[in-house]
Amino acid sequence: MQRHFDQELKDLKEKILRMGGMVEEQVQGALRALVERDSVLARQVIENDHRVNALDVEVDEDCLRLLALQQPAARDLRFITTAMKISTELERISDLAENICERAIELNEEPQLKPYIDIPHMANWSLQMVKESLDAFVNADPALARKVCGDDDFVDDLTQQLFRELLSFMLENPQTITRAIRITFIAKYLERIADHATNVAELVVYMVEGKIIRHTLG
Amino acid sequence: MQTSTDPSPDLLRISVARPHDAFPGKAAKDLKATISLTDVNFFYGESQALFNVNIAVPQNHVTAFIGPSGCGKSTLLRCLNRLNDLIEGAHLEGKILLDGMDIYSPQVDVTDLRKRVGMVFQKSNPFPKPIYDNVTYGPRLQGIRNRAALDQIVEESLKSAGLWEEVKDRLYESALVLSGGQQQRLCIARALAVKPEVLLLDEPCSALDPIATSKIEELLFGLKKDLTVVIVTHNMQQAARVSDYTGFFLMGELVEFNDAKTIFTTPQDRRTEDYVTGRFG
After folding, report:
1. Can you name the residues that pair with B91 across neighbouring β-strands?
2. pLDDT above 70 (res B231)
3. What is the pLDDT of residue A1?
């Protein structure tokens, strides 16, 4: 029996995916703006953040409406509450992309400190995690979700490595401090993006298996 | 979730306890059972209505039975105080124990059993008598004649049923002038007057409006302090709201019995999942 409610759940899923796609574009745009020193693009990414915010509010409203009017249970309930939380995670990722752009604009006003090598590497890992956590959501795939949770350690290691490298720059030449700190911030933002992707993945495990795994892994 | 600071894990653990839950998180099997059914099969003549039901109804909790029409949940409820005895050709196999006593043993006095296991039905059925007499009907049958004792029973029972304030000034008016919801609470008071250990409710709210329904639901939270409640309901949200433990029946079979939180958030059986999400059929 195809219920009207099923169509609404499908619409909700599609909305989350649309939001996911937008967020990925935001992070990619932020990375390009940084690496290609393109402040115009950076401003555009910042400007686009409101679209993600609007979708976040829309998803929230949809979820609240479904909870109130359909009184869902079991997997439907888990799906809707998960969608609500994933939307918040995605919105935060978009905020971080915006933060990267703000730092990029500041960095673009000074000569480049060093070629960006680790940052794009980190960004690609984080982006991959975002992508895979959303794939896990769409396909209700807890195995993929658990893999994403594991990948987070790698991004954390990269952050530490980059931090040490930037520290040596700062020790050698105090003139680099402002720029190095800005890059450190960017590394931290990327690390946070990976954390949010991990959160999404953890939520997916709950949605599929009904098991709350967050705060239980290392 | 990842956090930059590390709060104590205890603070982050999500509590599964609900405020009215006396034994949060306990599995039904770990609680003292008031009624326990072992391999119960029930037949209406040739046709079998219950198949091998095993269940332990935990004491001082609300247990709800849910399932589609004809799944056997009402039949099961009626087995618990031998109401099905009245149906010709009906018979039961297996054992039903009330506090360890086999309720189908020939030594059992059915009237005595029904005093211990009270019942309230879908349609309120007050006697066409004054409110006072409705409540004292059972105690009088038991031989209580003392006016003060009866007065006390009436007040206590009506208070437990949440009806006292509404009727205390008109106890000698006919019960039939009461509203549907009040009549149903009067029936609950009447059942409580003989101090049962178990209260069975068969769709007690299906004829009531939401306010009367919520009054009865609130009542159940209070009642379980003193007795064990078993409720059959078609209203899944009601089962989710009032029950501590929930059993899902399908075609005479107990598919899943678990704490209500598990049944309504993470059921273990696919059929339960389909039923509680409304995908059934």
Report:
1. B43
2. yes
3. 59
A–B interface: beta-carbon pairs under 8 A: 45
B9 pLDDT higher than 60: no
Whether B60 is covered by a domain: the verdict is: yes
pLDDT at B89 > cutoff 80: yes
**Interchain CB distance below 8 Å, B265 and A74:** yes
Does A104 fall in a domain?
A: yes
H helices of chain B, where?
A: 9-12, 73-79, 110-116, 131-141, 147-160, 164-167, 180-192, 210-223, 236-242, 260-265, 270-276
- Report chain A residues whose CB lies below 8 A from the CB of B2: 152, 195, 198-199
Cβ–Cβ < 8 Å for B250, B67: yes
- pTM for this predicted structure: 0.80
B237 domain-assigned: yes
Distances (CA, A) of B61 to A123, B10, B217, B269: 54, 27, 13, 23
Please, how many CA atoms are within 13 Å of residue B118, restricted to the half-sphere of its CB?
18
> Residue B22: its pLDDT value, please?
40
The C-alpha atoms of residue B271 and residue B127 are separated, in whole angstroms, by 41
Predicted confidence at residue B149, as pLDDT, reads 95
Does the residue A36 lie in any domain? yes
Of B12, B272, B279, the CB nearest to A215: B12
Q: How many folded domains does chain B comprise?
A: 1
CA B178: distance to chain centroid? 23
Compute the average pLDDT of residues A102-117: 92
pLDDT digits (tens, 9 = 90+) for A45-76: 999 999 999 999 999 999 999 999 888 999 99
Total number of domains constituting chain A: 1
Q: Is residue B15 in a domain?
A: no
Among A147, A163, A160, A128, CA closest to A202: A147
Is A215 part of a structural domain of the chain?
Answer: no
CB-based contact A152 B276, cutoff 8 Å: no
In which domain, by residue range, is B256 found?
A: 28-126+198-276
First to last CA, chain B: 38
Residue A214's pLDDT band, with cuts at 50, 70 and 90, is: confident
Q: Quick check: ipTM above 0.85?
A: no
CB–CB contact A74 B237 (8 Å): no
Q: Can you give the pLDDT at residue B251?
A: 94
Range of the domain at A205: 4-209
Average pLDDT over residues B84-89: 90
Here the CATH number for the domain that contains residue A20 is: 1.20.58.220
Closest CA to B64 of B270, B261, B277: B261
**Paired tokens of A203:** 């939520």
